[in-house]
Amino acid sequence: MPFTLRPAATADMAEIMRLERAGFAQAIQETEDAFAERLSAAPEGCWVLQDEAGRLFGYLCAEFWPLQQGFNPARFARNHAAADTHAPDGEEVYVSSMVIDPATRGTGWGRKLFSDALSEMFARHPRLRSTILIVNPEWLAARRIYRAEGFIEIGEIESYFASDNGQHLPAIVMRRN
Q1: DSSP state, 65?
Q2: Does the model's pTM come out above 0.90?
Q3: What single-letter DSSP state applies at residue 140?
C-alpha cells in the first residue's frame, strides 16, 4: 500500500488523536490542545503519513530548539507549550511525538515516516545540525529504529513515563549529530 508523507494540517487533528490513542498508553497520551498548539507554533515540524484514500497511518511532531550541550530535562515536559520552546532558527530538531498505526507496525513504515520526515526538515531548514528525542526503555522497536538511524543514548530522565498500572519508567534521551 503506497503512502504519502506530507505536512500536517489542522484538519488532521481527529486522525492524529485517533493515532495517539491507538499508539500510547492512556497515562502518557498527550492532549488535543497540546497537538493543536504544537501544530500552530511549529508547523514545519509536524508530518503525517497518508494512504491514497486520505486515511492517516502515522504522524511525527517536532520542534526546533537551540542546540545545547547535554540536555535539560525540563525541556522535555509532556504537554509543554511549543510556543515557549520552538525556535524557528534553531539548530536541533526535537522529535516530541511519533506514532505509527498499530495496523502497520512491523512493515517498515514507522522507520520510513521517521527518516523521511527528518530528511524533509533538514532539507528545508539547512541550519539544522542535530536531532534529539526521548524514548521509553520498553519500546524496543523504536529504539532499534533510532539506533539504526545513527542515534546514541546520552542520558536518562528519571520517572518520566507513567504506565496505566502506576509504574514509572525513565526516558532515554538519544541524539544524532
Answers
A1: E
A2: yes
A3: H
DSSP string, 145-163: HHHHTT-EEEEEEEEEEE-
CA 131 – CA 63 distance, rounded (Å): 10
State which amino acid sits at residue 3: F
**Domain interval for residue 137:** 3-176
Provide the CB-side half-sphere exposure for 128 (13 A, CA): 26
Spatial CA neighbour of 7 closest among 42, 52, 53, 55: 42
Letter for the amino acid at 148? A
For 44-60, what is each residue's pLDDT tens digit?
A: 999 999 999 989 999 99
Whichever domain contains 61, its CATH number is 3.40.630.30
- Predicted local confidence at residue 1, as pLDDT: 60
Q: Report the relative pairing of strands 130-135 and 92-100 from DSSP bridges.
A: parallel
Number of structural domains the chain divides into: 1
Residue pLDDT, tens place only, 100-136:
999 888 888 889 999 999 999 999 999 999 999 999 9
* H or E stretch at 49: strand 46-51
Going by C-beta distance under 8 Å and a sequence separation of 6 or more, which residues neighbour residue 119?
none
Cα separation, 76 vs 175, whole angstroms: 13
Q: Are 113 and 100 in contact (CB under 8 A)?
A: yes
